[in-house]
Design brief:
90 residues; alpha+beta; 2 helices; 34% helix
Amino acid sequence: MSTMPTPLADQMAARLQATLHPTELEVLDESWQHEGHTGANGTGVGTHFRVRIAAPQFTGKTRVARHRLVYDALQDFIDQGVHAIAIETR
């Protein structure tokens, strides 16, 4: 199996698109790589994600501040069971 887009990844991407208006965006569901780990739900989808994003709002912000913007945009998903988000900002 490989890292792939899933319906939840697509929903997360739509939220980031609407909130941060990124110039680059990729949201990948990597849950299958975390089977048996804390937060995995046994299905191989929907718990662990990687976000690669570049957005104008990141200009002049620290890495922590950029990550906070992403987490704030995705808080509803975290509240609903997304366990981990690896964030790569540019």
